Amino acid sequence: MPTPECPPIEIIRPEAFPTRIQHALFDFDGTLSLIRQGWQQVMAPMMVDYLLATPDHEPRATVERLVVQMIDETTGKQTIFQMMELVEMVRERGREPLEASDYKQVYLDRLWERIEGRVVGLEQGRIPPEDLRVSGGLALLRALRERGIHCYLASGTDVGYVRNEVRALGLDGFFGEHIYGALDDWQSYSKAMIVARILRENDLRGSQLATFGDGFVEIENCVAVGGIAVGVATDEERRHRVDPWKRERLIRAGAHVIVPDFCRDEEILALLGWG
Fold first, then answer.
1. Is residue 4 a part of any domain in this protein?
2. Each residue of 223-264: pLDDT tens digit?
3. Which domain holds residue 175?
4. 0.85 surpassed by pTM
């Protein structure tokens, strides 16, 4: 049930809800998990530092804007793709870049400094899992399972980290073997591949699949196959609020509905044909 501070759901494209969905695909970071909250504030400064060290860089304000725009457009993709973009940006500004994998490792090291306390706190029981779950996510997953809806999870984060963090948040029982994440062989995995696989292996129409995500990529992939795209525009710091930047990005990607989190789980279920 929604709490008094739970913001309303915003329906963007009301024509998209005629079918009772049978399968649901979830993004992880920012959609179900808050463990990596603030990752953009780690990635963007790192990229800006490398770009400002090139001989032909623009003014800082321009570089910062370009980096934020790139991260915005690639959120939801594997991290290596963002680092591949950085490689090209460095090269275009007159410096021989590092390998994308090297940039990725620098980023992961810096990110770990930010989130280590959260991960260790969860593992040691000092931080309750609900403190680092998006509000209402657990209740929604339980409701979907009760209705026989098959749930999948696909993340742009490396799959080993994803599995560990899903387990730390107490969410692993909802996805079975269907937890997917970035691979060393980046060409072997994408969210679009997972969407296509779900449809193919279950002989589904796109309208029988709902995707929940806070990134441009998973929403765009869902819309492309005719699925129902639920944009999760959670304000990860203040909770129970819509992040305007996420909202705008998700609408631009084609989201049919915007939710602040999952606090209105019964309304979400009704939109998916399970009212």
1. no
2. 999 999 999 999 998 888 899 999 999 999 999 999 999 999
3. 10-34+133-274
4. yes
